[in-house]
Amino acid sequence: MHKFLWGASTSGFQVEGGYNLGGKGLSTTDVRHVKEGIADTKVASDHYHHFKEDILLMKELGLKAYRFSFCWARIMPDGHHVNQEGLEFYDQIIQLCLENDIEPIPTLYHFEMPQALVDEFGGWKSRKCIDAFVEYAKICFQKWQGTIKHWVTINEQLIAMAASDLNGNHENDKVLQTKNMYQMSYHASLAEKKVMKLLKEIDVNAKIGVVNAVQNVYPYSSSPEDVLAAMDAEELMMYMLLDMSVKGSYSFRVKSILKNMDCYPVQEKGDDEILKSSKPDFIGINYYSSICVKENKEHRINYQLPPFFRSSMFEVCPNEHLKKTKWMSNGIDPLGIRSIIYKIYNRYALPIIITENGMAYSDVLENNRVHDTYRIEYLSAHIKEVLRAKEEGYPVFGYCPWSFIDVVSSHQGFSKRYGLVYVNRTDQDIMDCKRYKKDSFYWYKEIIERNGENI
After folding, report:
1. Largest Cα–Cα distance of the chain, in whole Å?
2. Cα–Cα distance between 401 and 182 in angstroms, integer?
3. d(Cα 114, Cα 80) in Å, to the nearest integer?
4. Residues 275, 249: contact at Cβ < 8 Å?
């Protein structure tokens, strides 16, 4: 496994903090409503003040790659003008990574954007957001031309467009919210294509990829109706966006489903040319668990479900074959990650990197240690499946667990933790944010040293 990128991931708004420091503008994630008693993102894991310490911990861990994200509002506070102090903050992170032989893999868009652009024109609801995103990407590409080898466009686009508290587009009408989600997603796909093409014009040697939350979907039974329902669920939740990213169009099935839902996005002349103009160099996979669906016999859309689970074609149901935990309610399914690699490569024939894969738990710090055997078991089982696919010849070039350190969860604060490193704070008490290495840290260090052998 020559040059396999053993890495780890975070995202800007979930670790940085310093929300009003260094010239940063307000992000959509800074102004959203957070339930009382749950930590917000204003301090998060305080990476803003601890990034040097954190990168030295990454060096100790032996990381070959660090996948993180820029906060758009730190680089362009109003969405239009550049904040040099913000660029310099990320440049320090990038240069320190490089000094320690860690490849920085930045994501341009990870669940947040300048609130100013939402106030100005509705964010991704407007086509104006396409040009704003392209301009932002241009600033980044020019700044780190020849420095960054792998870029990521948008993290988990469907979820980013579905979660109104992250994208700033609040809509009480659930039907209109669902319609908006697919329109915003379409705009993001156009923006992504323009950005891919732009990078090749600025830095011909750099590679750019997309990162998707993938849903390995099982049919509840072997009935033909349940099997078709599972196929439809995968079309919408996994292939729809990747088809757009790689092929520049929706599948016939997705077109039919969206038209039947009255959610087919409004297009303009020239869009098809943009969508066909470029494609990603690689695909990033975010995988935590699989889901199970059955036929939606009444063919009614349940608008109480998360937006990307809403369909008249299928109904999400429990999978009785999987072990479930408090935070992993869909069940733990290591084989699912190998199945996903097969499916994604067989459909798109592009190199793959696992950009997120992790075990959520309410970790407890005792005597300055966290004995997270459950996380070690989860990661070990999943890494084995990833390496098996690689041994079979599938071009998997990296693995990044979520997350390097404990991050503030989008909706559950610090009660839900994923990190290899514990951050000493609670939802209601920021404390000192001191870093403590969990047992999983030492375990992963050995995995990297052995390059995954004898796991």
Report:
1. 63
2. 29
3. 10
4. yes
DSSP assignment string, 120-186: HH-GGGSTHHHHHHHHHHHHHHHHTTTT-SEEEEEESHHHHHH-HHHHS---S-HHHHHHHHHHHHH
- Burial of 133: CB neighbours in 10 Å, binned 0-12, 13-18, 19+: buried
Q: Could you state, in order of their start, the residue ranges of all structural domains in the chain?
A: 5-449
Fold that domain 5-449 belongs to in CATH: TIM Barrel (3.20.20)
Tell me which residue of 116, 4, 102 sits closest to 55, measured CA to CA.
Answer: 102
Residue-wise pLDDT tens digits, 1-49: 458 999 999 999 999 999 999 999 999 999 988 888 899 999 999 999 9
254: tokens are 């997705």
356, 377, 446, 449: the active-site residue? 356
Give the DSSP letter of residue 26: P
CB 75 within 8 Å of CB 139: yes
- Tokens representing 92 are 């320090």
- 3-class SS at 286? strand
Neighbours of 273 (CB within 10 A): 10
Beta strand segments in 17-172, E: 65-69, 103-109, 150-155
Specify whether 88 is catalytic. Answer: no
Structure token pair of residue 98: 């490089």
DSSP type of residue 316: E
Tokens at 437, concatenated: 């290495």
pLDDT, tens only, 126-173: 999 999 999 999 999 999 999 999 999 999 998 888 888 788 888 888
pTM exceeding the 0.85 threshold for the entire prediction: yes
